[in-house]
Input
Amino acid sequence: MGSNQTVGPRLRVVIAPGIGIGPGKAALLEGIRETGSIAAAGRRIGMSYKRAWLLVVALNSHFELPLIEASKGGKTGGGATLTALGEEVLAAYREMERRAGTAVAPVIARLSRLARPAR
Output
């Protein structure tokens, strides 16, 4: 395990066949909320703009309403914001992540005691 990786579960939730959310999409949603930009959110997590944009398109297509609203760039610049549904989906994912972490914490502690120290 790399030194920048935290100990604990990494949750990927499949909501319906072919529709899921995991750490990357959640980080992208958070980045968009915090920066107001798909490009800046992608850069923050080491993701290309193209990949970030494709994830935005996928996320928006998987729900009845969009999670992200984007405006085109130009002289005034573009931007992106999370919709109310985007905020709800992100909050639900983070809640599931917290609950999963709490549920498996004793087992992770037991396994950590058995693991070799990182070099």
